[in-house]
Amino acid sequence: MVTEESGISRPRAIDGPPATLPASAPADAGPVPVWLRTPPHLWQAGSLDRDALHAAAEALARTPGFADAARGFAVSWQAAYDGNATLRAVMRNSSRYFFLVMCMYMHRRRRPDDPADGITLSRIIESYRGMERFGTVASPSRVKAFVAHCKQRGLLRPVAGREVAPVGDARVRLLEPPPRLEASLGDWALGFLRGIAPVLPLPAPPEVMSHHPGFVDELFSYRVAAFVQDGFALPERHPLRQWIMSREKGYHVFLSLVREMRVLADGSAIAGIPPAVIARRAAVSRGTVLNLLDGCERQGLIVREGPHRGLQLQPAFVERSLQWVALEFLWMHGLAVAAWARVAARG
User: Fold this and answer.
1) Residue 84 in contact with residue 184, Cβ under 8 Å?
2) Which residues of the chain fall short of a pLDDT of 70?
3) Integer angstrom CA distances of residue 236 from 50, 151, 171, 231, 233
4) For residues 335 and 45, what is the distance between their CA atoms, to the nearest angstrom?
5) Contact 136, 129 (CB under 8 A)
6) Whole-angstrom Cα distance, residue 300 to residue 315?
7) What is the tens place of the pLDDT at every residue in 40-91?
8) What is the dihedral of CA 280, 285, 287, 293, to 10 degrees?
């Protein structure tokens, strides 16, 4: 949450793109953002208007005061992430994030009339096909390690008394997420919602939304439906974000730069934070942070030995970063409002 102690001023509310409700939408669909052609719970191929989404994000990023909004979001998200030991241990890069949300999606969308439907190791492995173009890669052995780690952490468990038909010489066990996974992702969503609420108003307080039964499940099912039905993931037009988010705690490191970013008149920015502090915040080695900064410097996006004290963020880095945060704002806001309408209608 943005506070006076953070040193970041609370940005004024920014009007987002108007929401519409298609004439064919069910009564509980809620407002549908202009970049969706159908309510998200009815996602099908062609539901997403990519150009409209990116155009709206670019317009939001250019709004006066949005750099303050981005810094406030970084504070909020890091606080929520750092406050949850499970997220710190498990959600460390884009591959692990995709693993967790895909498990939620498979469990939510399982067919009640099919006892073999749900989360299995083979289905998770298959789900990574096509994710390479978004910088999200996980080999079968890595997925097996994810499963073992999540079971050890209490985020996945075998479905009692349920097995899929034999495959080869083994029986494939169905898995399910216990309430702990939804609670952890709820904290992740809470950090997001607190960060965007001062800019894009929400239908209920973030704490109420993120803890309402079924909300997190509904929200993440939309995020995965976009990939399953439309082949869409947020980083598809942002190769820099793909590269950063695929690295160990890359998103956390990126948000530390956004959090300290002070934009100058020429469009560049200063981030007056030493790499050692970034590493300590993200709970990674200083070498991990330096490798990421070196990669950005090789791409001409930052200067580590600039004329000002601290990291010099070039205009291209600032522009792309604000566009990315604006894209995340609109994406999360549109899906969260729709998910809330659904779960609130169910009581």
Assistant:
1) yes
2) 1-30, 133-135, 161-172, 306-309
3) 10, 31, 37, 10, 6
4) 17
5) no
6) 10
7) 999 999 999 999 999 999 999 999 999 999 999 999 999 999 999 888 888 8
8) -50
